[in-house]
Amino acid sequence: MFRILAALAALFVVLPSAAAAQSKGVYNKEGYWEVAVVGDGCGAALFVEGGRQFILQAVDSQVNVLVGLDKPARAGRELTLNVAEDGFSGPASLSKNRRLVEMAATLPDEALTALKTARQLVVSLDGRELLSAQLEGTGLAGALDAVIACSEGESGWWGQGAARRPKIAKAVEPEAPPLHKAGYWSIEPLAGEPGACTAAAKIEEGSAVVFFAAEGGIGLGVTNTAGVRRGRKGVIETEGYQASFTPAYEGDDYFFTADFVETQTVFVLRRAKGMRVTIDGREAASVNLEGTGIDEVLTDLVACARGEKGWWGDGAPQGR
């Protein structure tokens, strides 16, 4: 979700008097919710008194919330959405100018259901109220359905939907390494590196995503025959989560994490529906992971690196 944080700030966080001139979104029939395509997702903003906004953002139908403020917020760790008698909390992420606060977690289904029938909501940061808004009569239920449909690439009263991220392409080359049963990922020992294996999947654009495992850790790489841009800061993003890494480069067409990614990142990737990788804010890869067997593949990748045999054949040689 963080991938569209900056874009949402530019699109929605403006004073109400300037919203119509600066926004490219479309208002719902009730005239309260503004829906727009932002990055590879969609956002719906409700402007409230005092130059603040309550924003719903969706990527691949996964929804979280943001609050746009008229002045910088104090630092905080937990953002809470209170709807009627229900409270939904998640870790808070603040933009650089602290005028946009995001809940860095996907809203559960029960939160979405509560929002659709809510008359009022209050959003707080570490117990401090950031925003209070009347929802009755604003058409929130329809706006929520719209932003989800928009994030899935559907068109409607809001205009064109978000561009869908490319799916990983099934490998068909007979000479390719053995494939996982889902038909997307291949695993093989890394030549010349004892105790190391790679799991690779092609992307429709002709590039590939590569996970590598060694010494109990997992790293990530991206290769592109058209070349990769160099930069200093990489970010791995999924629904409601992001992790930074330092990129290292091999030639002009491949970069990888200079260190193993954190255990928490691997945990999130196992359950992710999609993944986006950026270098200095520029997209390097964006893929759908749902249905590709990524959870099992990462487990098998580590097993291969330990030297175990499996559907991939022999494991990596051990020792040097």
Q: How would you summarize this macromolecular structure in one to three sentences?
A:
By secondary structure, the chain is of the alpha+beta class.
SSE topology:
Blueprint: H1 5-12, H2 16-22, E1 26-27, E2 33-38, E3 41-48, E4 52-59, E5 62-68, E6 78-83, E7 86-94, E8 100-103, H3 109-117, E9 120-125, E10 128-134, H4 140-151, E11 186-189, E12 196-202, E13 207-214, E14 217-224, E15 234-238, E16 241-245, E17 247-249, E18 254-257, H5 263-271, E19 274-279, E20 282-288, H6 294-305
Antiparallel strand pairs: 1-2, 2-3, 3-4, 4-5, 5-8, 6-7, 6-9, 7-8, 9-10, 11-12, 12-13, 13-14, 14-18, 15-16, 15-19, 17-18, 19-20
Helix pairs in contact: 3-4, 5-6
Structural features, described:
With 320 residues, this protein is of the alpha+beta class. The protein folds into two domains: 2-151, Immunoglobulin-like (Sandwich), CATH 2.60.40; 186-305, Immunoglobulin-like. 18% of the residues lie in helices and 38% in strands. It contains six helices and 20 strands. It has helices at 5-12, 16-22, 109-117, 140-151, 263-271, 294-305; strands spanning 26-27, 33-38, 41-48, 52-59, 62-68, 78-83, 86-94, 100-103, 120-125, 128-134, 186-189, 196-202, 207-214, 217-224, 234-238, 241-245, 247-249, 254-257, 274-279, 282-288. A ten-stranded antiparallel β-sheet has the order 1-2-3-4-5-8-7-6-9-10, sandwiched between helices. Strands 11-12-13-14-18-17 form a six-stranded antiparallel β-sheet. A hairpin with a 2-residue loop joins strand 9 and strand 10 (128-134). The longest helix is centred in the middle third of the chain and has 12 residues, at 140-151. It is elongated. The two termini are 42 Å apart.
